[in-house]
Amino acid sequence: MIQLDNVQFGYAKNQLLFNGVTWHFEQGHFYGLLGRNGAGKTTLLKIMTGLLFPQNGEAKLEGMPSYKRTTKQLQNVYFLQEEIYVPHLKIKEFEDAYAPFYPDFSHEQFSEYLREFEMDNMLGFIDKFSHGQKKKVMIAFALATNVPLLIMDEPTNGLDIPSKSTFRKIMASYADEQKTVLISTHQVRDLHSLIDAVSIIDNGRMILNAPADVITDKLLFDIDNEKAQDGKVFYTEETPRGIYQVKENLNHVDSALDLELLFNAAVQNKKEFTELFQ
Q: I need a surface site. Which of 68, 144, 186, 204 has the fewest CB within 10 A?
């Protein structure tokens, strides 16, 4: 599994993008990585998978430095980047060329995922497909690898509304106790029902990394007609339906996790959230 310890990194010599990021994963979770545009989510994923090297600290994959990118490491992780490259191959040619790199690749699952995305009858070259069609082929392939760690960077970008619905349906049945999924996204509504652990990065630091049940035990996501008078209120948002609030869950009341409200509350209360979820 992946482990980041006190990672520092910056593209500019005297300007750090990350300054001491520590992030440990637990197997079997569906992680959502949230952050502002430009917060470095994609960069962090590349460090995790050994495509970039930290300037200080450690990034480990399968217990070894990520930058080694050994055969074992690469067999156990699949990183689907937002900007995808596809070779001049047809779908079957792509499958035959790349599937052998993944010992648990399922040709049956690949065919089924393509069918669900309505891509099973596409006969042309993948690089000639539309962006959304390329994305669906690569998502289907990524899922069919059955790697223990699947990382996706903005997977729903470029998908139309029916395809996003199909993606959620497939992902809901994909994860299990042997697989860990990490999705970096700013389209939280697309993945709201899937994520069971949330990580938020802001200003070069990880300000929240916790399972969803821990978050909802400590925070109450509520809608009311007036602002709360008791307990700490971390965030409020007035809407025509009422006032959405994120506040201390003093009485441990059950509430549904709202990723958008959570993110806004976290970035406005970095110190409090770091202490609350330490």
A: 68
